[in-house]
Structures are given as C-alpha cells and as structure tokens.
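2024-03-11 09:14:02 INFO receiving multi-entity request
2024-03-11 09:14:02 INFO entity count = two
2024-03-11 09:14:03 INFO echoing inputs for audit
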Amino acid sequence: MLAAETSGRYWGGLKLKGWDSTLPVWVGASLLLVLLMAFPLGAIFSTSVRNQAGLTFGNYAEVFTKPAFLTAIRNTIIISFWVGLIAVIVGGLLGWLVTRTDLPWKKTVRALVMASFVTPPFLGAFAWTLLAGPNAGALNKLFRAVTGGDEFLFNIFTMTGLIFVMALYSFPYAFSMIANVCELISSDLEDAAVILGANKLKTAWTITLPLALPALLSGFIIAFLHSLSLFGAPAILGLPAGIHTITTQIWTLFQYPPRLELAAAFSVPLLLATMVLIGLQKRILGRRGFSTVGGRGGQKRVVKLGWGRVPVFILVLAILSCSVFLPYWILLKAAFSRAWAMPLDWGNFTVENFSYVLFQYSDTQRAILNTFKLGILTATTGTLLAMLIAYITNRNILRGARYLSFFALAPLVIPGIVLAVGLFIVYTQPPVVLYGTVWILFIAFLTKEMPIGFSQAESTFKSIHVELEDASRILGANRLVSLKDVTAPLARSGLIAAWCFIFIGVIRELSAAILLFAPSSKVISVVIFDLKEEGQVGAISVLGILLLAVSFLIILAVQRLLGRDLVTARE
Amino acid sequence: MATVSLVGLTKKFATLPAVDNLHLEIGDGEFVSLLGPSGCGKTTTLRLIAGFLEPDGGEIKVGNEVISSSTVMVPPERRAMSMIFQSYAVWPHMTVFQNVAYGLKFQKLSTREADQRVSQFLSLVRLDALKDRYPAELSGGQQQRVALARALVVAPRILLMDEPLSNLDAHLREEMRSEIRRLHEEIRITTIYVTHDQAEAMATSDRIAVLNSGRMVQVGRPGEIFDHPKTRFVAEFVGKTNILSGRFDGGNQMFVRDGLQIRVAGGAEFNARSDAFVCLRPHNIVLMADESRAREMERQGYNLFAGLVRRQIYFGDAVDYTVELPAHSLNLRIITPPSQRYEQGQKIYALAHPDHCVVIKE
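2024-03-11 09:21:47 INFO inference complete, emitting structure
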C-alpha cells in the first residue's frame, strides 16, 4: 500500500513517477539492460524460425519430434527438479542450523558452504570422476580394498551421480536465501505462537515455515534454473554415459556441421517456461510484505539441539565432505602427483604440474591473465548496472519496472551456451564485430552474471525499509542522491557481495566461453576443458586449485573488510 | 503561505479507491489530524501530499501552487516538506548529529550556520548529550526525537507525520504527544498528522478530519467532533458512546422503542419520521438513586431513564456502570466519578440533558 504502486504519464512507453532530474540514469540503465538481453535473444528467435529457404517452423518441429531431443528435455527436467529439491532441503537445513541453532562450529560450516559455492561445478564434477569413476575412482578402490571384491560402490557416470554432483554445487544458492530469511525472522513472531499454545513443531509449521516459504520457493527456483543452464558438469559426467541434457545437446549441435537454428529453436520454449515460473513466483511472493530492516530489529533466540547436536553436526560434515573435502583432497593429490591414481609418496610427489602451468605453457599463462582482467571488469560494471536495475524494480521508478527484473533474470534460463550462440550470431557480423576479442566474452559474462548481481542487489534493497529512503527524499535529496547517501551505504555489504558473486561467477564460467573464445582470448575454464580432452589430470588440478585459491583470497579479503560472512550477506 | 488544499483528491490501488474524492483546506500554521481506522486511506493521503504517490484524480495545492495533479507532479525533494515516519526511519549508519544535519546539506548554509542550527534543534528535543551516538544505541523515544529534530531543522513549509507515536509505549506516547503540541505552539508549522488514535488527535490538533473507507466523514475542532458527531461511525470511532436507534419526529423528539421517547438536540438536516440514531456519551449521563430529585430534573427538561445497575467496573478515577432499562429491554453505559457508588441490582435513575442527546445518521 505504500510506495509499491503508482501511476503517471506515458513517456516513450514508460510511465513516469513524475518529473525527475535523475530520469536519464534510470532510463539509460534500463535501455542498456534491455539491449544487452534483446540482441542475443532476438538473434536466437530470428535464427530459430529460419532455414536456408526462409521462414519456417521446421526447426521447432524437428526439436520436438526427434527422440534424442525429447530424451534430453526429459533428462534435464528430471535432473533440475531433483537438484532443486535437494538444494532446498540441504540448503534450508544448513541455513536454519547455522542461523538459529547451537550447532557447533557454525562459522566454519558457513565458510565451507561458501567453498561449495565457489567451486566451479565442472571442477567438482571433474574431481568426482577421480573419486567415483567405476574403475580408477579413489572411493571405489578403497571400497574394493576393504571388501576384497571387484565391485564398485558408486558410478558417478550415471543420472544419480550427475544429480548428486550438481546438487552439491547448487545448494549454496538456496542456503544463502534461507539463511538470510532465518536471520530476519525474529523470535518474537515464533514466541507469539508458542504463547498461543503451539508446540515447537506446530510453530515451525505455522509460523517459521510460511515466513521462510518465499525464500524456500526462490531457493528452489534459483537452484532449478541454475542446474538447467549448467554445461560443464553434465558434459563431464553425462556424456561418457551417453546421458544428454539440453545444454550438452546444444553443444553437440555446434560441432561440425553446426546447426545453429536447431539450437535456437531448442532454447526458445525453455525461455518461455521460465518466464511463467518466475511470473508465478513473483505472484506468490508479491502479496506479502517483506520489509524487515526498519528502525528496530527483533530478538533472535537460539534453538538448542540437545542430544541431536553431535549427530546433526556429523550429517553436516558428511554433506560438506562431498562438496568440499573429498574433491579438494583429490585435486590436491593430483596436482602434486606424477600419477594421480597412485599413492602420494615421495617417489610420486612433484611440483612439475605447477611449473608447467604457470611458467612453461603459454596458453595457460595467457588464460590466467585474461580470466582475472575479465573478472574485475565484469564484476565492477555488473554490480553497478545490477544495482541501478534492482533499485528501479524495487522502488518501481519506471512504469513496467517489474518487467525489467524479467530481463535481468532472463540469463538464468539462457544456458550460457545458448547465450553464446546469440552473441556469436550478433557479433560476428557488422555493424559491431567483436568475435575474436575479449569484449565478446565481457558482454557474455556481463549478461550471464546479471541475475546473480541483480537478485543479490534486489534482496538487499528489499530488506531496506522504503521509509529510510523517503526520509532523505522529503528533505531534499533526489533519487540518485538518496541512493548514494542512504540506500547504497545500507546495502554496502550486499553490493560488495554482489561484486564477489559476479567475479567468482566470471572466473569459473565455461559454457559461454567455450563457444566464444579465440586463441588469444582463452580463459582458464576453457583451457581446463581442452586439457581434459588430453587427459592432463595434473595440469587441470593445478588450474583448478589456482581458481579456488584466488576465489578464496578475494572472499577472505572482503570478509575482513566487512567483518562478516558473505554467503549470508547482510548488515 | 503554507496552506494546503486537497481538491477532489483520488487514489486507486488496482481498481479499489484508497482515497476517494477528498476535499480539505488546511490553514497556514494549522495542525490537522487525519483520523481513521487502518485502511481508511489516511496514510495514502499523506503520501500523496508528500509526493511519494501520484493521484489518479484531483489536485493538491500549497498556497496557490499546484504540486500534484494530472499534469503536474513536483517530486518530494522539491516540496519543501518534512515527514516523520511510523518506523522513525532514522538512518542507522549515521550518528544522531549526522541524521539531523542531513537535510541542511540541500540548503545553502555555511558549515558553521548548519552546525549551529543542528545544535539548536538537538537541544529543542533534548538530545544534545547524545549527538554522537548511533541510532542503535538509542531508545525508541530518543529515535523518535531524532526524527522530529531532523524534520524540523530544515524549517519545512509543511510537516507531515505518519503515526509517529504508534511504536512507542503508552507512557511515552502521552509524553510525546504533548511534546508535539508544545513544539507546534512554539514554531507553528502547518502540520498534517495521521493517526488512528483519537486521543492523540484530540491532544495535538487544531482540527480533525475523520476518514473512513477513503472518504472524509467529518471535519471539525476536537470538541465538535466529540460532542457533535454527524454519523454513527464518527460517534463510535471517537470516544465511547451509547447508540440508540429510533425514529426522529422532525422537531426535538426521538421515538426509540416501547414508548421510550428522548428529547434531543440537532437533527436539523433530518426529515420528520426518518430513521436515525441518538448518540449519548457515557460521561454525559448523571446517575442518582433519589427518585424525587430525579423527577425534579426531568421536569427541568432532562431525559429520565429508570433502571437497575447490572454491572460496574471500578477504574480508580471513574466507575463504568451498565444500567439495564427493564421497560425497554435496553442497556446504557454510564461513566461517573468514583465518589458515586451504587450497588449491583440497585434501582437507579439516569438523566441526560437533551443537548447531550445528539441525533446522528448511520
């Protein structure tokens, strides 16, 4: 009922909230976003309805009748559903545990969840091939050694294995949202229910859960969409077993001879489905007020786990072993070994993998430089743009602002690889030819990371009571000044978190880069994928460790700066 | 001249009118409350005046200048208004001093002048000692005073207050409302005050505008609103009351039921034999046990009700009686000073002067 709704005059299709000197900034940022999304999407749409003969729906017909495509769609839906569900359960459990209970070592648990988030899924998937490959996998060898048989315990090259690994690297998204909300739900609200005679379970069911429901739903949707767009993990784990998802199927379509039009047609329905999904989510969430950080904050009480404290902690450790300890251990081992599958003793120990990657191989050297340049550039531009867009949608500055969030979130459903096709089509032909330069990667990353930056900025803005801003405006600050003086400082940590999320997203990006790189603009992830084809386990591990180390250094530095945790970023 | 005119002001959310064709003139230096239950449109009205919302119809003028209409929309930062918010909206990342000084940034003042002004207003709200604290280190009442100083320091043309006291405890609320009235009498800024608390409106305002479902129901001085409500809604919303339904004779009689006839005041706008209500405030009824004295007062023109004490609640400073009128199967609520005590079941006479029996409509 407050500032949520407004009306006004039409101006170029946008209805304005009144004459405002800051208008060009909002309109400019919106246009930039729309163009950023519209070019590749437009290219995909127009390519999807064309063949050599002209306009046609033949591409769609082919996509929806060929069994191979249908199987890929089915696989993708099954995988994403389970990944979303597991992510919400695991993320929700951990989020609640670290914010509201007396779980031991909560800070460490948070740090490890962060580590899972930072780990590129393709790297995790690669590590799990070393851990649970049916023959040479370390865990399976251990199992055989213990039982004396010649069976294997896990085969990671299966549907289950794929879901397992993808969930491991999707749950931090759900965790982040749920932990944030758990911190916001004050115990007063729960106490009120207890006073009315509700027991713990009933309180959790009727008060805590409904309050957390928007976060749970958003967590599911984000994890679902994230897993939908993953390319690296399914390529590494699924392809050897002949399991195709939509993304790997599209990638196959780019192998010689490329079938761009089919790939385009394959991604259009995906886009529409997500539109519906996000629209639905907005509808569900939109009816509840989530203004939470106001003048006063509620008390938070800690739930005592009692006898369950140790078993629960062991469960948490088990989850984090799968996402962090085991994969890191195997990568480290491989990085320092001549032969990764052999025991790591003095005879097998080496640092040659490092010197090869860092000093001898020019491809990796250049890739490292490109990666970090692109990371910084994209994160800075992206945070700024995401902040402006989130501000526009959150404060409803322009008419139709809520459609902007569709644009900002759209890349979630454009698998990186599809986005790459769109950009490929747009920027390989005049007027702007960027293919072959790092700029096409910059645009791809900026587009692709917009959802993370945007949702981070948006949820931060959402938690800042609009009256804090109104108070500065009525005293004479225009919207930009108010954003600078009040909103941005209050959202500072959320925005820094957005920067980090984007940076880390960029340096581990594979699925768009794999189509857009040129020999001079290779990035680390692409080089890793190249090396995988050559079976260079040691070099891959070194690059992987480098990626992880840099990510962690950045996070540590920022956490030091802010004096708190990033995954659950708030004041 | 900082007068404010609302002319046919209308605001719809989706298709529901939140503010419906509102007309109101507010004089220079006047303190006007918008009073009504939640959802009556009072906060929406205030946000329309502040410029945070744009009207769907009508206009808002300050002096002769139109600031909101279908063709004009002055943004909030150029309205020279101040506002105090329900959540205080004190900025947590700034000290008390910085909070109060913020608005002066946009005025052409030297640093020394500005600092002086801030100090002056900090002492006005008695916060000088706390100027370097952060809001998190302040109590609710202190935060409220920061908000007050921050709003006043810029010397606004108009001060808007949105339920500023609703987050305070009752004691502090009473203290702050007289503080607000005191400050108003000192600086006389045109003030529009939104509240759902009639006592707050009475204590602070020159005039009260009662709103219901987005419409203006009655405007008047606090005494007028209380003593001469025009509708049942106003009568019941503002203060405690007995409401008796009946038929108005067009002169000075109401026929309530079973031969119960009440002499009334007002009702000039009613036709003879129209359905109406009588509003009878519990404080305005006199109780006595002595029949002859009661009859004597009846002869002097008072309405007399004979009944039995059904229930009594002792409040220390007053006693709240429920008196049953067996002949008419009616109950009357009567509040008397504590010096008068009657027993449960005792025969009693209730007397009300016709001036206190106000004819009102639904």
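2024-03-11 09:21:48 INFO post-check: Chain A touches chain B through 31 residues (CB under 8 Å).
2024-03-11 09:21:48 INFO post-check: The domain at 62-118+172-325 of chain A is CATH 1.10.3720.10 (MetI-like fold).
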